């Protein structure tokens, strides 16, 4: 079910500004890959190129290849809408749909895509909420608005919403940066469970978090402000945090840089 | 001598002299009294002059008293507050007196008979008759105009916010701005020229077309603002679920802002409900009941008010009818506004737990 991502020579632009340059990496199925690096180095931009959300931004443009199990996402005739059904995304700030109840939020992806059976909907919502470790907290108030939940619950609701459409890959853009440590722990535990079923890529500013949840870690950096961000190295998380092969990575991880 | 006594005597740097809470009221009452005295003493007839003098005195006295007791900075604060209040009162007085005058004169002949009968057999200078034909005409013309103007306006706004890029969008925005400034009589003349080209007689729908032209830019502007308020994160969340853009707009963006969109439409309806000029040109007016907006002259409330005033040779009965029709029109607009607020509150995104 989970799929492998194979990126080669990927460059992304905002208008004429080159945001990331010549990135190549492989993300294994059923693993967690963490992206770390300073602000503005293009981690989020790179993440958004993996499900073609980058081009939603006006002026957004991509060169290079992203293979999802041998199929190029930027190939001729590929429908970005179908890509996003295979590669789901969770954002930095929890963003449940404010007009919808908790149930409708989780069901939104299926309902709006139109491919579901009514009888299955209840089961899928329950399964997704259980998958996001939220079921016990909300099972008595599924008809209440999703925006009434706490921040951590809202973020888990957004994860439930993303996994309800059964994507192959789940992208997470700093999913815990707006949350307190306890909610963060809940989400990290959840990531550990979700990697049995999905390929997960997570952007984080929290290096302990990267060390805790990920199997592999990629370090991004940029030469100077205004320069495009680059992938410095990607390796097993343990190795990156103990014995990285590039000096810049060690400097960043240990807090010595510049 | 204890230390406490010493600290008590030292002047606090945080606490300054301050005027009691009732000071603004006292100054207001005082300046009104002085203004009345000045008015009576110098023989000024106009109450407006009295009011303006009172307002001016209030501002000066506020500044003077506050500057003396509290210091310059607090005085500036107080005079800003006073200016806001004076401006507010100046704005409310005409509004309140307009409603008061309309209600006072309008209720004289406003009853069920007045609302359910036409002017068909009543001469304009005689008492009796009613506005049923005008209400019917107004509802039909405004309703048809809304059916045309609101969808076009909302779709234009959706184009501008969700799809519009580059020159076309800039051109559309520019022409919407230009349309906002079109005088209603010009919109009427535009449709009239079309009618003359096809050799048609006045009819209700022609008025609706002109009203729709007036309505569209208002709807576009208000809807645009409402759609811009929808956070981009919601659009992205929906797109990231693999929902196509058009469905995202239809199911996420528009429902999130539907309350504001409806309010905007209702306000523009209220605006065109009071338009007289294009109706005068295109619908012509009719003392009989004509329920068919596609054939023959119709009446409408603003037109009825104008005609009762201008074509009745100063008859008191006609003036009373004009005031009663004005009251009906104001009530109609007010009800629309209340409905719009109700819908906006009902449809607003819920935040409760």
UniProtKB/TrEMBL annotation, chain A:
The gene is pstB. InterPro entries: AAA+_ATPase (IPR003593), ABC_transporter-like_ATP-bd (IPR003439), ABC_transporter-like_CS (IPR017871), P-loop_NTPase (IPR027417), PstB-like (IPR005670). The keyword Oxidoreductase does not apply. It comes from the Bacteria. GO terms for biological process: phosphate ion transmembrane transport. The keyword NADP does not apply. It comes from Streptomyces aurantiogriseus. Keywords: ATP-binding, Nucleotide-binding, Translocase, Transport. Residues 5-247 form the ABC transporter domain. This is Phosphate import ATP-binding protein PstB. GO terms for cellular component: membrane. GO terms for molecular function: ATP binding; ATP hydrolysis activity; phosphate transmembrane transporter activity. Pfam families: ABC_tran (PF00005).
Automatic annotation (TrEMBL), chain B:
It is found in: Cell membrane. GO terms for cellular component: plasma membrane. It is a multi-pass membrane protein. Its main location: membrane. InterPro entries: MetI-like (IPR000515), MetI-like_sf (IPR035906), Phosphate_PstA (IPR005672), Phosphate_transprt_permease (IPR051408). Pfam families: BPD_transp_1. The keyword Ubl conjugation does not apply. The chain crosses the membrane at residues 22-42, 48-67, 79-103, 142-161, 173-197, 203-220, 252-273, 322-344. GO terms for biological process: phosphate ion transmembrane transport. The keyword Isomerase does not apply. GO terms for molecular function: phosphate transmembrane transporter activity. Gene3D superfamilies: MetI-like. Keywords: Cell membrane, Membrane, Phosphate transport, Transmembrane, Transmembrane helix, Transport. Residues 135-340 form the ABC transmembrane type-1 domain. PANTHER family: PHOSPHATE TRANSPORT SYSTEM PERMEASE PROTEIN PSTA (PTHR42922:SF1). Belongs to the binding-protein-dependent transport system permease family. CysTW subfamily. Part of the binding-protein-dependent transport system for phosphate; probably responsible for the translocation of the substrate across the membrane. This is Phosphate transport system permease protein PstA.
